[in-house]
Amino acid sequence: MLQYLKMDLIAACMAVTTLFSLPTPVPATAPIATVAPMVNPPALVPVAGNSVAKKLPVAARIHASVAPVLTKALHPLRLAGTGMASWYGSMWNGKKTASGETFNETLLTACHRTLPFGTRVKVTAVNTGKSVIVKINDRGTMTPSRIIDLSSGAAKQLGIINAGVAKVKLEVLDKVENPATTHQMPL
Length: 187
Description:
Elements: H1 2-19, E1 44-45, E2 54-55, H2 67-74, E3 81-88, E4 109-111, E5 120-125, E6 131-138, E7 146-151, H3 152-158, E8 165-174
Parallel strand pairs: 3-7, 4-6
Antiparallel strand pairs: 1-2, 3-8, 4-7, 5-6, 5-8
């Protein structure tokens, strides 16, 4: 899969190079034309799978009109959905999360595959209607059939701690604009 992603990125960069190639040189007496400003996409972009945000190569710095399309095409976000949730707790207590925070099982946090760190998500247990607002601070879930892993504190508030897994509905309340500083955001 990584090989295909690399090939897609190379093909996109080649297309952009073709679209924005430099004109042939003109005599020194002709006035110099101004070029549209280049825009750098965000340094960190959420990626699918079990990896943290990765830096885009310099070649991906392209014209403003193309950047959002390319970024969305390569890195789609699943902003909300319904599916199975599970929880994790004491075994991970005190260990570092993917965002750099220290995991505390009593806090209302969760891990998600693609949402940016610091994103607040309303999680509702479908069978009970109970809801909790969590902050995404880790990457996962490691089980393909699940859409989110909750801290044990969040699972207790939802009433799913004994069941272990439950069907939930996710609603994104806000997304963090600067993923590099999300670990400093309060819940």
